[in-house]
Protein: BTB domain-containing protein
Organism: Glomus cerebriforme
Amino acid sequence: MVILNYRSPYLKRILSINKKKNDGTLSHIKLPNILPEIFQIILRYIYGGKVSLAEYDASDIIKILDAANKLSLQEIIPYLQSFLIKNKSNWMEQNFNLIYQTSFENNSFLELQKYCIELMSKQARKIFNSSDFTSISEKCLISLIQQNNLQISEVQVWEYVLKWGLAQNPGLSSDPSNYSDDDFNALKNTLQQCIPFIKFMEFTSKEFYNKAYRFKKIIPKELCDNLVECFMNNDYKPIRKSGSQIIKKITSKNIDSKIVTIQHAELISKWIDRLEIADKIKNSYEFKLILRGSRDGFTAEKFHEICDNQFHTLIIIKVKDSDEILGGIRVLEVIF
């Protein structure tokens, strides 16, 4: 009992509040979703100080990692992550969704988070081809298709996004010729957050007609109309107020940010005007950088010095060691 109290803060807390029965034995305690066989492995580690991972499958090691975190065994977590990355990379690539969700559940699994981010940025094809690709979350998919070096064509990105969207709607076939309006609306609602990040302008006219135009009802109408005109007329120059891909050619040079992309700027512009994702842009806003943490510092004093009394202020923060972006907007002046 002394060893359990010493090695695991969680068990120490549970055992300290657990009352003894009349015969002197402890009553049963409930562990947080830990399988008995996994807890046996943890107990051998607690009492023996060692754990041999070579005999376990990757899925079991994930469970051991999760149990170690729940029991506050922080000293073994880096070792478990390192073992997975060095010895089970093929399995993790095929089960990327599980690894992604596990790693970002809390900040204890920073090495796995780093692994996921690097895989998305450098070897995205492996994720697209993984056995559980269609099970990844919308957030994960958007993070993936935003990567700049996917090493696959944009039409392939579109096909993977469609594959994911159809998997979320099992009743829909890959052939939209027989879709009802309800079918199109279901797929449109599923993919509405993803479509702004598809670079349709990098399609060939043949690719657009064969792969995307069949699904024109899920693409914002103004964007679709401009794309059709563009692909039919070689002299056509995309107008400013259209889809994200067309705006990019005009306004990306005006966004001085290491976090915000042109696609983000388009979405933010719609949110400012309280528009839905599929609505056309009503106003093209200029984004002027006034403070950058890596340049100006991250102190509260510097923030107030630069940002106080500023109107229409947008604050964007990127979470360290992750691809998560947080933010907010204040229309009135910043006064604290």
